[in-house]
Amino acid sequence: MRRLCGVVLLIVAVVLLAQANIPIKVTLTMMVAGDQNMVDFFQYEIAPEFEKLYPNVKVKVVGTGPGDAGSQQIIQQLQLEKDSGKDKWAIDLVVIHEAGTIWGIERGLIRQYTDFLTTRRLVTMKTAEVALGVNVNGYVMPMFHSQTAIAYNPRFVKDPPKSYAELVEWVKKNPKRFGYNGIKGGMSGVSFVFGWVYWKSKNPDVLMNGPFDEKYMEDWPQIYAELKEFNKYVTLTAGNAGTLDALNRGEIWMGPVWVDMFYTWIREGRMDPNIRLILPEPGMPGQPMYFAIPTKAANADYALKLIEFVTSPAVHAKYIVDKFNWYPAIGVEYVTPHLGKEVFERLYRDIKEADLLKFGKRMPIADYRTRMLEAYERWVEK
């Protein structure tokens, strides 16, 4: 009898031990602002690889669209989670723009977490610390850095404008052959507008670095009046993808694009590979995309693991740089050992590293940024 009881107890112990070792099933829900390529990146590339590492995890990816509107949708959803009073929120991880990060911090919707992230020490750019002039240190890990530039078709544009000033003259001679999306449907158009204001402003460094003072906006009415005149000669496109599509079809010959989207379209056969890029003087802004963890994320531990996975040097090199043509969020020296020479030659084919350093600009600080967009709506769109 004692032997039978001992066997039963042993079986029970083994079962309990086995159950203790079975990981709890987890659905890691992430919301992603950005174009469709951002959603595809996580859904078809990162999620399957991450789920192999953690078989108990299922990654659910929800896209919210490009530009600030995409980040705004994420913030609205997080606000609903906060207002519900729940102890655990349904969203575990978000990928947002600089503006979305600031909104999240101001409203208490995202948490500090990077002290627990080992890859944070690999970041060399200041974008991990400051966004639009606001301290974001601890709240974000950059996913990548992206840059805007002017794409042009050399079949029609033999000598592309090398500056905003030359572009103004070019559009008058080639009406409707330059296209951009204004400030709707994506940040490529927004970046072009900011670059225009930097070019015309007497204080571009103040717009990028502060301080905020309305006296630095006194020349804006004339700046935007000239932009409205410029727009008479251009084609307004349907967004980031709309500009690329119009370029590929030959409807326009030039337009601002995101470098990563441009090269990805070429790689996928959606863009004429003969189309080239140029970064005009005095420059155009780029921006990072950020990983952030909601304040009461139910699965913050796995969110941290996913961020760590994407920003690890080998994975970052394979997907961020090689496959999706983004500029790395971590130091180049960490991804270089994992990349072939041809990858860098492709990524820096038209816009060299020296060009990026000289003409790649920051987005304006938050207060100027908001007013720049409002000024465009007030003085250019109407």
UniProtKB/TrEMBL annotation:
Entry's InterPro entries? SBP
At the top level, the lineage of the source is Bacteria
- Which Pfam families does the protein's record reference? SBP_bac_8 (PF13416)
Q: Which PANTHER family match?
A: PROTEIN YNJB (PTHR42779:SF1)
Q: What is this protein called?
A: Extracellular solute-binding protein
